[in-house]
Amino acid sequence: xxxxxxxxxxxxxxxxxxxxxxxxxxxxxxxxxxxxxxxxxxxxxxxxxxxxxxxxxxxxxxxxxxxxxxxxxxxxxxxxxxxxxxxxxxxxxxxxxxxxxxxxxxxxxxxxxxxxxxxxxxxxxxxxxxxxxxxxxxxxxxxxxxxxxxxxxxxxxxxxxxxxxxxxxxxxxxxxxxxxxxxxxxxxxxxxxxxxxxxxxxxxxxxxxxxxxxxxxxxxxxxxxxxxxxxxxxxxxxxxxxxxxxxxxxxxxxxxxxxxxxxxxxxxxxxxxxxxxxxxxxxxxxxxxxxxxxxxxxxxxxxxxxxxxxxxxxxxxxxxxxxxxxxxxxxxxxxxxxxxxxxxxxxxxxxxxxxxxxxxxxxxxxxxxxxxxxxxxxxxxxxxxxxxxxxxxxxxxxxxxxxxxxxxxxxxxxxxxxxxxxxxxxxxxxxxxxxxxxxxxxxxxxxxxxxxxxxxxxx
Length: 459
What we know:
Blueprint: E1 4-7, H1 47-50, H2 68-73, H3 84-90, H4 96-107, E2 111-114, H5 121-130, E3 135-139, H6 146-159, E4 164-166, H7 170-180, H8 185-188, H9 191-206, E5 211-213, E6 231-233, E7 248-250, H10 258-267, E8 348-350, H11 353-361, E9 368-374, H12 379-383, H13 385-396, E10 401-407, H14 413-419, E11 427-431, E12 439-440, H15 448-458
Parallel strand pairs: 2-3, 2-5, 3-4, 5-7, 8-10, 9-10
Antiparallel strand pairs: 1-3, 6-7, 9-11, 11-12
């Protein structure tokens, strides 16, 4: 995800408010408290009121913008610790606008919206609607689509803001590219490149904040984001004060469906990335993003050469949990301990390890077979369930092809990779009548018509 930090103003000077203006007030400057209205015995000043830090913050300084006399005379009061787990429960049924307003009111200039250049522009619109000052930041990895850069410019002009861009360390990028080439992620995975171009710049950005706002939704990736709360202590990154628990993460649209986000964007006439009109749903760096096809989950357009459980770049790595499942593979790295099985239909045959081995060994079968290698927790397998079951029911009406499924995660994964051409989930194989060698379905189109065309071409 390309992320950026933007402030609702990069212009210094006094803040002015106009009843006819709906833009969030600019936050590029501040003014000192008026001593004449301060009642010293009853007022305490939090650190949030006492310092304004940029996202790419420098080490803390001792000087404060609050008058010295006020800080000396005011008794120090311990800051109340918020129970964010309880707050998440309290806000579970709140609207995104209410959650956004709560976040901005609580953290002021110490919070910023993480903007990726996709449909999370909705976050900026919600922030505008609160009428409060807000900041936006984004990560410019250096490998974004030209359309995304054009979109950034359109957003800045539409909202009258300046996005606070974070860039990767040039020396680190140079070392990575010189040693491994420009496209090493296709060979050994995307994590190293994302760590250099995205995670480390994000870490620097968050060190200047006490909270951040993301566009994570539960329906984006059922395997890794299904349990995302509307607010939480960030489990992976540190904030301005340092240490565990020093950063709060707000996810105002966690409970909102993707279609509702788009309905909101259309209703508010918000500018959107032109890539969306060409089939792109989840948008990241240009080499690692492509349009999704019929029957595919939206995250399948990202890092398509890798398994579903690798579909996080590290910006939200707190979503991922350590694999500790049982021998049957019921637990997995996505942290879903128990999930319902897929492709449940009387028209489908569930194959065991012995069953799939025997099928693979046969050279003269009575019937051809179509078999999906799957994992129930995989969001891309979940996305194609309807089309595959419908295909099985259609083929059941005509003799000649049986349809089966084989669960290939857990202990079966290595066998499936070695013997059944498993690359990632789902993998679809066709076993012809007169050949022991299965034919792998290479297309990413998993709608009924495309799968039926594949079968008809081979049976």
